[in-house]
Amino acid sequence: MTEKLLRPMRTRPWPERWLIRLLGAALAALAYLLCLPWDLRNRPTTPGGIGETTPVTPAGVVVLALALLLLAAYFGHWDRLGWALLLVAVPPATLMHVAFRSHPEPDASLWPLAWAFFTLLIAAGVLVAAGVARACRGEWAREDLTLSNPL
Predict the structure, then answer these.
(1) Contact 60, 89 (CB under 8 A)
(2) In this structure, is the dihedral angle defined by the CA atoms of residues 140, 142, 144 and 150, taken in order, positive or negative?
(3) What angle do CA 15, 18, 33 make, to 5 degrees?
(4) What pLDDT score does 151 carry?
(5) How far is CA 11 from CA 4, 8, 15, 46, in A?
(6) What is the DSSP string of 122-136?
(7) Closest CA to 114 of 126, 130, 103, 125
(8) Cα 99 to Cα 55, 84, 112, 116, distances in angstroms
(9) Over the range 27-50, which residues count as b (16 or more CB within 10 Å of their CB) and which as e?
(10) DSSP state of 6
């Protein structure tokens, strides 16, 4: 099973390729939903205050970042960079957009800027992780050849 997951996408039949890509997008969305819970019952922290309670924790943000970086490295290594960006960065950005749009307008007037900033941050992280994994692809292949053929 693991040897199937560790093959380049271009060598796989198209149904398997698309199934893995859909699974990757679902995992990115699931990671976002698990690490940054969606609380539609936001309440002011103090009566009359404009700051709201939030279920987002620093640990959740770190776990989400690690999960997205691992997914980006996988797809960057075995697939093309464009697919890594689409599969790993777009689902969390879409869910974040929907979450920001669900807030009342007076409290969330800066949500377009926050969404744009975090989307760019996620996309940049995905591209860097995928690019590094893609660059290491050649080194790992040469290492395997060296180990299997010491001469």
Answers:
(1) no
(2) negative
(3) 140
(4) 47
(5) 10, 6, 12, 58
(6) HHHHHHHHHHHHHHH
(7) 103
(8) 13, 23, 11, 13
(9) bbeebbeebbeeeeebeeeeeeee
(10) T
Measured distance CA(9)–CA(1) in Å, rounded: 15
Is 122:93 a contact under the CB 8 Å cutoff? yes
Q: pTM above the 0.85 mark?
A: no
Burial of 24 (0-12, 13-18, 19+ CB in 10 A): buried
Question: Which amino acid would we find at residue 70?
Answer: L
Residue 62: both structure tokens together: 């770190």
**Contacts with 18 (C-beta within 8 Å, 6 or more apart), sequence order:** none
Contact at 8 Å (CB) between 49 and 34? Answer: no
Look at the chain and count its residues: 151
**CA 106-111-112 angle, 5° bins:** 125
Residue type, 36: L
List, in order, residues 6 or more apart from 65 with CB less than 8 Å away. Answer: 125
Interval 82-125: pLDDT, tens: 999 999 999 999 999 988 887 666 555 677 888 999 999 999 99
